[in-house]
Specification:
Elements: E1 2-6, H1 18-34, E2 39-42, H2 56-66, E3 71-78, H3 84-97, E4 102-107, H4 112-118, H5 124-143, E5 146-149, E6 154-158, E7 172-175, H6 179-187, E8 191-194, H7 201-217, E9 226-234, H8 238-260, E10 265-266, E11 269-270, H9 275-279, H10 286-292, E12 294-296, H11 298-311, E13 315-319, H12 326-340
Parallel strand pairs: 1-2, 1-13, 2-3, 3-4, 4-7, 7-8, 8-9, 9-12, 9-13
Antiparallel strand pairs: 5-6, 10-11
Length: 345
């Protein structure tokens, strides 16, 4: 099993300096690289200080200067916000600059907040259809001399400029949850990214089941890779794990509030949630987080990941976004590298 880091700049307080947050993001990625992780992933979001990443290619090009070995992945670009020619070209340029280290993760997107501002009137169904048109178009543009008459984008014969360094282009990963998304990815020769979010091991098994069913449906297509993305905290002791569960419960309360898109937002920040708001959430609780996320001392975390490895996951991505302090994120990541990863070598 390979291990990677999934990270963004996180800003939940207007007093947090954005340059400092970016510098801390870079430091975490350097720790991952120095510690022997396989890849670093960062996503795309707009107008949200909760996860600051308006163009992940910029971050990855900068990370290429600060790292030596890690693959550099978009986790993920939001398909409906991209024209196929633009995505093919910008991804290829990133691949060129990073000397062939790019992995291209693509998703339909999740936040109606972003849909309303970037593509007013678009719903999740249309976003998914746009992704299904985009992925094969990008592959064809990398090959060159491709024309399209599509539902969403039509263009005359075009070639990606530049073309990627990697043969056949960077590996493409599709964020999948429902069976149709898994089937689309497998049928189009794409790897798959999955996350159970706040759900537990049952969801991890369910997602793998959908992937296996998709692979079985297309037996003539080589089995792609599948990556599991989970919030992870390697604790110093039991008390530290309890604190992490409280912190990650607060994170998911904010995640859920952004997803519902009902609270006032000012200067890119959501109206603060009170302790009472958090305590009254119908299913987010610290106890649920400790049970469902991967939180615990190194031996506990190792055992949880072994279960995922046994299911057949190829890559485990350490989702570090948590609204914790940089110091707590750093300590957890360093313990993961020192005390968990060696058990899988």
């Amino acid at each position: 099993m390979k291990f990677s880091l999934f990270a963004h700049m996180e800003r939940i307080d207007p007093d947090q300096d954005q340059k400092q947050l970016y510098d801390e993001f870079i430091q975490l990625c350097k720790i991952a690289d120095d510690g022997g992780m396989h890849a670093v992933w960062t996503g795309e979001h707009h107008g949200m200080n909760f996860t600051i990443a308006p163009n992940p290619f910029l971050n990855l090009v900068d990370l290429a200067r600060h790292t030596k070995n890690v693959r550099l992945g978009t986790g993920t670009v939001i398909a409906p916000f991209w024209h196929p020619i633009r995505l093919a070209g910008e991804a290829a340029m990133t691949d060129l600059i990073t000397e062939g280290r790019l992995d291209l993760g693509i998703a339909r997107g999740a936040y109606s907040f972003e849909y309303e501002r970037m593509m007013p009137g678009m719903d999740a169904w249309e976003a998914g259809q746009r992704m299904r048109e985009l992925v094969p178009a990008v592959k064809k543009l990398w090959e060159g001399d491709y024309a399209q008459e599509g539902e969403f984008h039509s263009f005359a014969k075009t070639t990606s400029a530049p073309q990627p360094v990697q043969k056949d282009g960077p590996p493409i990963w599709v964020a999948a949850r429902d069976p149709n998304s898994h089937e689309f990815a497998v049928q189009n020769g794409c790897n798959v990214q999955v996350t159970p979010l706040w759900n537990g091991d049952d969801e991890v098994e369910s997602l793998m089941g959908k992937f296996n069913d998709a692979c079985a449906k297309f037996p003539d297509i080589a089995r792609p890779k599948i990556m599991l993305l989970r919030h992870t905290y390697v604790a110093e002791d039991t008390a530290d794990a309890k604190q992490a569960a409280v912190e990650l419960n607060r994170f998911f309360n904010y995640f859920g509030a952004w997803f519902k898109n009902e609270r006032d937002i000012s200067q890119g920040l959501i109206a603060p949630l009170s302790d009472e708001d958090i305590a009254n959430h119908p299913f987010y609780t610290p106890e649920n987080m400790e049970r469902s996320l991967v939180i615990g001392t190194a031996d506990v975390v190792t055992e949880r990941i072994r279960k995922s490895e046994a299911l057949g996951y190829d890559e485990y991505s350490f989702w570090i976004d948590s609204s914790m302090s940089f110091e707590r994120k750093k300590a957890s990541l360093e313990r993961f590298i020192k005390d968990v990863m060696p058990a899988f070598q």
